[in-house]
């Protein structure tokens, strides 16, 4: 079994990957505690998390900053996750592709950097997210030799190789950033500030018409609770979840593209998606401004 602490859209792919390998994906959702408008208040339930483990559990999949919620796990939370993994002697696959997009005073901590975690952790990074070139599909895995060696075997039998010119470009990007680190010209300083500003603009637009954004700690995305709008799609009789009908309607009628978050959950926890939708903040100024203009036209049901 593989325990996943993420509700991410990767869930469906992970489930199929597990099935091919003869494994089983066990999902553990983040549940809201306290003020639901802050991503930091969406947390793992310890009883639920620990109850997902068995003698057959092989790995835990973790995402921080989280997609779609935008939560950044704190050091205390990561130490807890690590202690449970150590107790059951499982490896951790930590998806940290949004590590450069951290808002405000939040801090990104690599779980693999914590005491006792290096030997059991593979950390995943992405050039697409780091340098905003998501079409390049270049990434990396960091971890101890005994785990990375096995990962190399898998890679050689699947993707086999990556486009070398793009790898060279990514290496050049890192070298350049290192040369201007901590200066006003640093891209890694500009990127989170820009996306935080984009999120703020979208959040204000949604609030102005009565919806409730969930302020993220970081990442590309923000959740928005549409329930105050009173929209009802039962007459559509599509058999789909509310959020799926909602985003299709927003796209069709208003040209506002969002994502339903029910697709991020397994069947048992899909009700937790309620009436949330996900919006992307990693867009151009023109697109953000246009989106805000469209949002201002949305009305509550009478």
- Order of strands, widest sheet: 2-1-5-6-7-8
Secondary-structure element sequence? EHEEEHEHEEHEHHHEEHEEH
Q: Per DSSP, what share of the residues sits in E-state strands of 2 or more residues?
A: 5-15%
Low-confidence stretches: none
Walk me through what this model shows.
The protein is α/β, with parallel strands linked by helices and 302 residues long. 36% of the residues lie in helices and 15% in strands. The longest helix has 22 residues, at 187-208. The radius of gyration is 20 Å and the shape is globular. The termini are far apart. The mean pLDDT is 93.
Give keywords:
single chain; 302 residues; alpha/beta; 6-stranded mixed sheet; 4-stranded antiparallel sheet; 12 strands; 36% helix; globular
In short:
The protein has 302 residues and is an alpha/beta fold. The protein has helices spanning 10-20, 46-51, 75-88, 127-130, 145-156, 164-179, 187-208, 242-254, 285-295, and strands at residues 2-4, 25-27, 31-32, 42-43, 59-63, 91-95, 121-126, 139-142, 212-214, 221-225, 259-260, 276-280. Strands 2-1-5-6-7-8 form a 6-stranded mixed beta sheet, with helices on both faces. Strands 9-10-12-11 form a 4-stranded antiparallel beta sheet, with helices on one face. The protein has a two-stranded antiparallel ribbon with strand order 3-4.
